[in-house]
Amino acid sequence: MAGDEPEEVRETVTLPEQFADESVIVPPERKLTGALESDSRLIEAVFSGGENQALSRREITVSGKTAAIFFLEKLAGLDTVSRNLIGPISRMGKLSLETIRAGLTAGEVRVSGDLNGGIKQLLQGSSLVLLEGETRFLIARTGAAPYRAVSEAIHERAVRGPQEGFTEDLETNLALVQKRLRTHRFAYENLEVGSLSRTRIAILSVNGITNPRLVAEVKRRIQSLKIAHLSDSGMLEQLIEDKWWHPYPQILVTERPDRIAAGLAEGKIAVLVDGSYQALLMPATLISLLHAAEDYNVRWPYGLFMRLVRILAAFIMVFLPSLYIVANLYEPELLPTDLLFSLVAIKQYSPLPTIVEVILIELVFEIMREAAHRGPRNVVAPLIIVIGVVLGLVAVFTHLINPVLLLVILLTAIAAFVMPEFSVGLSFRLTRYFYILMAFFSGLIGIVIGVFIHLHLLVKQKSFGVPMFAPIAPFTKRSKDIVLMSPVWLREKRPDFLDPGQILRQPEDSRGWLKEQSSEPMAPELPEGGKSND
C-alpha cells in the first residue's frame, strides 16, 4: 500500500482541464503527517513524481533528526539555497521549527500549515523546509529569478522628467511606484491568474482617495478569470476591458512609473503584471489617452502647446486621406484653382483609381512600419529608409502614384509617431480606413455620417463605469485638465468623474510663499554705491 501512495496522490492533486478553483493544488484531506518520507512523496507527487527535474530536494540530518528542503532551482537558485538555507541549517545544534526560523537571517522566513499556500510560494521561488515529526513547515523566501535592470522607458521617452521605466520584475516595479508615493495610504493587493503560469498580479490604489467600488470591480474581474496562461499585461487588458470590439483602448497602458503614480494620486487604479514592463491604468478616457507625462513636467504654456500639436496630429492622422479623396472625387471646388489645375495635370498620368492609390500606399506604409518593429534593430532602420526612398522615386517617376497623395500619406505616417502610446496610434490608424471608405462611397456627407457614428460609439462607451468621453460628455467644470490645461497651482480638485474619496488635491493657496511675501516688510533699498548707511 505504501508503494501505491504516490500514484494515488498524483491522481488527486493534478487537475487536468479543471479551472473551477485554481487555488486548490492539494485536496484538503491530504495533510502533512509528520512522517518525512510520506510528506516528501506528497509534495513530489504534485510535480508529477520524483522524476520531475524542475523540483529539487535536499536532506540534512543533525543529531539524528532530518530536514528536507524543497525548491525550484531555476527560480530559487542552488547557490542562494545553499548559502541561506543548507549551510546555516547544517551548522545548527538541534533542529526544530523555531530554532531554524530564528537561525535563518536572510530573507523572510515563516511557519505555515497550509500546504496549498506553501506550494504556491514554492512556485514563486520560495523554499519549503519540512522537518521530521512536524505537521507544519517553514517557507523561506529565496527567489532569485533573473530579470532586467531598471532602464530608460523604451517607447515613452521624455525630454524633461524621470527617465526610469518599468522592468519585467513585479517587486522592482512596485518599488518604483512606492518610492514616488511615500504615504501610509498607498496599498496593493496580490492576486494570481493562470492555472499553469500562476502569474502574480498587483492591484494598486490609495486608501481614502481611490473609490472602493472601483477597487472592488477591478478585483472582481481579475478574480473571475479562468485561463491556463497569462504572459503579459496586454492579455489581461483584453480579458477585463468592457467591450472587446470597441476601436479605442479602454485601459491606459504605460511603462512609466511616474505616470502610474500620478494616476493613483488622482484616484485611478493601476495593475502590474509580473513578467510585463507595461502597467495598466484605469479607468481611461479619450482625453487621457492623448495626454503625455511630459505635459506636467514643463511650464503650462509649453505643455498646452505640445498637447494642441498632439491633437492636431490626431486629426491629420484620421481625416487627411479621406479629405484628399473628397477633394479629388466629390468636392474639387474646395481646392484653390492653381492647386486644382496641378492635381488634374498630375492625375492624368496615373493609371490607378484614387481609392486604389490611397489604400495601396497606406498598406505599403503599414508593411514598412511593421518591418521596422519586427526586424533587427541595427539593420532594419537604414534599410527601411533606403527602400522607402527608392519606392517613392520609382512610383513618382513612373507616374504610378500621385506625388501629392504620397505627401498626404507621409504626413499621416509622421503624425502617428506623435501619439503618446502605441495602442492609441493603432486605434487612430484603424479609424482612418473607416473614414477613407466613407469618403469614397459618400464624399463629404460620408465623413459627416462617420463622425456621428464615431462620436456615438465614444459617448456610449464606458471604462469601468466611467464614460470614455468624460469630462466633455457628461460635461464637468471641476476638471481643469481636459484639452486646455491650467497651471499646476490652479489644479486644486481631482476629476469628479472618478468619484474620489477626497476631491481636493491641494488647497487653493498652494503657493504659500505668496502669502508670506505679502505679509513680510519689504527689504530696504540700498543707496547708490551698494552700501547701507547703517
Automatic annotation (TrEMBL):
One GO cellular component from the entry? membrane
Q: Which Pfam families match?
A: GerA
Task: For this UniProt record, give its keywords in alphabetical order, as a comma-separated list.
Answer: Membrane, Transmembrane, Transmembrane helix
Q: What biological process terms from GO does the record include?
A: spore germination
Which residue windows does the record flag with biased composition (Basic and acidic residues)? 506-518
Ranges annotated as spanning the membrane:
308-330, 350-367, 379-398, 404-422, 434-459
Looking at the record's lineage, which domain of life comes first? Bacteria
- Region: Disordered, residue numbers: 499-534
What's this protein's family per the entry? Answer: Belongs to the GerABKA family.
List the protein's name: Spore germination protein KA
What organism does this protein naturally occur in? Hydrogenispora ethanolica
What is the organism lineage in this UniProt record?
Bacteria, Bacillati, Bacillota, Hydrogenispora
